[in-house]
Amino acid sequence: MVPQEFFVRERVRRLIESRRFQQAITVVILFNAATLGVETSPEAVARFGTELHVADHAALYVFVAEILAKAYVYGWRFLRDAWNVYDALIIGFSFLPTAGGLSVLRALRVLRALRLISVVPSLRRVVSALLTAIPGMTSIVVLLGLVLYVAAVMGTKLYGAAAPEYFGDLPTSLYTLFQVMTGDGWSDINRQLMETHPWSWVYFVVFVLVCTFVVLNLFIAVVVSAMEEEAREERPAQAELAALREEIRSLRESLRERVPS
Q: Which domains does the chain have, with CATH numbers?
């Protein structure tokens, strides 16, 4: 005879894996993130402080119930899923002491909004692709650092005397070139240098072309490639999961036929 706990566990599993349950959790996460944002307004806290406190704790209890339900259903397999561990850590931050010198830890409650990453499949794929792309990015980071270093040394020697606030020494030049690489006000720096060095635009144009349109685009290429690889690996996994669920459903129906009513 099949133990009753099997059917209870199966019902809970179907509940937490259902689309409506995931949508409900998503709504709670968004609602909790909104209330945490409202708490940054002193006027709103003075007027609705009690309601915001109740809403925050209600959302926390929902998250705790979800984590406990998953742990009950999956048992030790709960810890094998990195996303489950991620959710448990995020919720665990909410229980850190917030009195006395640790009151700054209350700000960590907003980390609950990051649970959207584990709830929304498309966000999970993006994060997984980023993590997968990290080894490929290492070489690009080294290349970018080498380009920055060479350009900073050249800029310090060429323009250190004319614009010491931008190229006075190597650290200052590195910071300036990082600003140029992001596209923040590089034309203003260039125009100031062109007053004494008319051909300085060549230096900046070459640097921007190499860093922004070549090296940084390599990052995008690596991430896109990793996302495509993640999608290719996910398709057979989804098909296998669908077949497994169908097999479980058939097994459950056969068990129900054998269990006397």
A: 4-119 (1.20.120.350), 127-229 (1.10.287.70)
What span, in angstroms and rounded, lies between the C-alpha atoms of 43 and 60?
A: 24
CA 7 to CA 5: how far, in whole Å? 5
pLDDT tens for residues 36-71? 888 888 888 888 888 888 888 898 899 889 899 888
Give the largest Cα separation in the chain, rounded. Answer: 95
Nearest alpha-carbon partner for 116 in 106, 126, 107: 126
Task: Write the pLDDT tens digit of every residue in 1-26.
Answer: 446 666 677 888 888 888 888 888 88
Total number of residues shown for the chain? 261
> Which tokens belong to 246?
């169908």
Pick the closest to residue 123 from 241, 29, 256, 3 (CA basis).
29
Q: How far is it, in rounded angstroms, from Cα 173 to Cα 167?
A: 5
pTM: 0.65
